[in-house]
Structures are given as C-alpha cells and as structure tokens.
Amino acid sequence: MSFVQTPKTFSGRRTGMSARTGRAGFTLIEAALVTTIISFGVLAMLQLLAVGTVSNNDGAEMSTAINLAKSIRELMVGMPIADPQTPTHWGAEAGENLASYDDIDDFDGKTYSPPIDARRTSIAPLSDWSQTITVRTVDPNLLTTTVPNGTTASVRVTVDVSHNGKKITSYSWVAFDAVP
To answer: 38: which residues sit within 8 A by CB, 6+ positions away?
Structure first.
C-alpha cells in the first residue's frame, strides 16, 4: 500500500483548492466593472459618430457654397468689366435686369436668394441659400488696393455665400478687360 501525502499551505488548506469551492462565474463587482468599461467605450464611439456626422454636414455645406460662388464666376467669364456704350456708368444700366446684364459691373451689390447658376436660372431647392456679389475696381499694379470704380481695367469680384443667414464662404477673383 502506498501513501501519498498532499502538501499543505500555511493556512491548512490543500494547494490547488480555492476559497470559493463549488462556485463558478463572476462576482457582482467584476460584472459591474466590466459593464462600466464597456459603457465608456460605447459612449466614446457614439461621440465619435456625432462629431463625424457634424463634420460631414459642414463639408457638404462648404462644397455647396463654393459651387454656388463658382457659378457666378462661370457666368461672368468673357464679360467686359463695364458697358462699352457707357464705360463711366457703374452698376446696371437703366432697364437692365438679370437676364440682360452684359458686363461685370452690372452685378455689383446684387443678392440672389434663391441663388442662381451660370445660366442665370434660379435654383429653387436652395431657397435658404444666398449669393451676394461685390465688384470693386483695383489697381492693376497692386491688386490689393481698391481705387474708384471704373477708373482701371481690372476689378476684384467677391461672392459671399450664406446659408440660413450664416456666411459660409467668401470667394474672390480678379478680372481684367483687354486693353487695346
């Protein structure tokens, strides 16, 4: 007959046996801790989604605004700065309207809401958007310097695009008349 002696610990228990003999699973503290950690992770993911959605909406709004400003630029390509018949007159000539504007200075100070496209057609689905156009004569040798309107053959056109009354973008370019 053979006897095997099992080593004992200082407390008198046999090694390899737990204090919770016969109980399996998690304690309430462990379950609460896991729930808290997972909750923080889920909350962080939801905040990330919210920020991403707002950023995506801002990007879409900016793209629309830039496209509306570029529509005005496309509309003005090839137009003279001032009317050849009345070069000293600034702004729309008597009797002119959007359909008959024939030079860039005719658009000075105009606001379009709903905005217009390059074919001068109103874009009705964007009724909460607006385009405000400013045309200023600039010194051709120093384009940042504004001079009295109609005194040179160069202008800076600025289109401010707003959505629900909030300015989204300001888009500018310089146009020159051909000098003979």
So the answer is: none
Cβ density class 25-52: b for 16+ within 10 Å, e for less: eeeeeeeeeeeeeeeeeeeeeeeeeeee
* pLDDT at 178 (0 to 100): 73
CA distance 179 to 89: 18
Name beta bridge partners: 139. Answer: 142
Phi and psi for 70 in degrees, rounded to 5? -65, -25
First CA to last CA across the chain, in angstroms?
124
Per-domain residue ranges of the chain: 49-176
- SS3 state at 116: strand
pLDDT-derived band at 54, boundaries 50, 70, 90:
confident
How does DSSP classify residue 100? G
Instruction: Please tell me the pTM assigned to this model.
Output: 0.72
User: In angstroms, what CA-CA distances link 108 with 5, 10, 72?
Assistant: 104, 96, 12
